[in-house]
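Moderator note: this is an archived Q&A kept for reference. The question asked for a predicted structure of one protein chain; the sequence and the answer are reproduced below.
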Amino acid sequence: MSVEALNKAFAIADVLTFVEAAAGVPVIEINTAIASARIALVGAQVLEWQPADAEPVLWISRAAIYQVGKGVRGGVPICWPWFGAGETGKPAHGFVRTRMWAVRSTTQTADGVVVKLGITDDAETRAIWDYAFDLELAVTVGATLTMALVTKNTGDTPFTITDALHTYFRVGDIDATIVQGLDGVRYLDKVLDFTEHTQQGDVLFSGETDRVYVNTQSTCVINDTANARNIHVAKSGSDTTVVWNPWSEKEKGFADMAAGEYQQMLCVETCNAADDKITIAPQQTHSLVAVVSL
């Protein structure tokens, strides 16, 4: 649908409108007395969320690229139906993060604005992953940001997925940032060849960090010391939390990341990954939910 058609069907006067971030890349812009947000239809990617009287909570690269068929560096990319590297010839983090999603509904409530976006299987997706599915993201933009990713198996055979809400958070200084809530949790350290470790105390940052924390349903708290705030990341339907910062050397390999930006970003990802796989029977669903608050 064109931006004009989307506005005619789904805009909410003085609250929600559709604009083009670039040619063929529609973005939802939401502005209320409670909070503001931007959501791209490519990938159903939440790009920004900012509660009233607060600094932006999500991070977007200054060098982000907006184009059809490409995810944006920052915000909340959706990884589905696999997290991480795909099989040979298949895209990393699945295929829905670069595809156009359909708007299903936009509504305003006392708590904010709810946007529902969806995508279903077609010939192109079945050529990559041969299953029938319906995938819906419900985003509630208010004093908190709630993202609920619901997978439905619409076929007649079970399938198994891993998935993630790969959230990039904005922090004032990664060197002064702490993540609480993972003390005692076992993790796989990708930087150290996926060796297994147990977290001792809070997570601190002094170099490249890429850790898969397993068997954890805990809420994480990002202590953003430089901005004098705590960011809470609660979740459900997830047994894995990934903590990632590329640091200075790996950052250089990303064309859509400006020099030094690693210092102002941190990913705390709500996932099902590694051995945490979700098998969904025919006509059944699974919900992956992240709730972000200050």
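Archived answer notes: The first strand starts at residue 16 and ends at 22.
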